[in-house]
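Notes from the 1:1 (GR / supervisor)

We went over the backlog. Supervisor wanted to see one worked example end to end before approving the batch request, so GR pasted a single chain during the call. The sequence is below; no edits were made to it. Supervisor asked that the structure be written out right there so they could see what the output format looks like.
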Amino acid sequence: AGARAAGTEGVMIKRQDSAYGVGRKKGDWWKWKLDPLTIDAVMIYAQAGHGRRATLYSDFTFALWQGEDLVPFTKAYSGLTDAELAEISKWVRKNTLQRFGPVRQVTPHHVFEIAFEGLHESPRHKSGVALRFPRMRRWRHDKVVQQANTLDDLKEMLSRYG
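Structure output shown during the call:
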């Protein structure tokens, strides 16, 4: 619990006689990262991906509540399975409210748990907060949009962990 407050990212353990190797995935060094921070957010925009995901919507913008309004606060591109991407893509095609070039504004209906490694103040973002390495951790079928977190919740996280 104190690791995040101390500003650490995790723990690195290595064999005493091992040599450092750049970009090595295996070997005598092991990294244990802190569990990510999470927040529940509403998907408000979708955009088709690239490469093998070009026919699917895989790039999403998420929002948090501020009073009665949803305020965009992050984008996420990873974390869903291929089956989930196919399901959400079908839904996006049927629930597009407006089109802005490749971006589709969708009915605010789905809640996702967004995981991230850290956050900091950002005047460039409408929410005033930027996330570090945001990704979709899970699709919250068990929640309705009114149960998503608020911008105040995110700012509380900023004051504690930012």
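Supervisor's comment: The first helix runs from residue 2 to 5.
Batch request approved.
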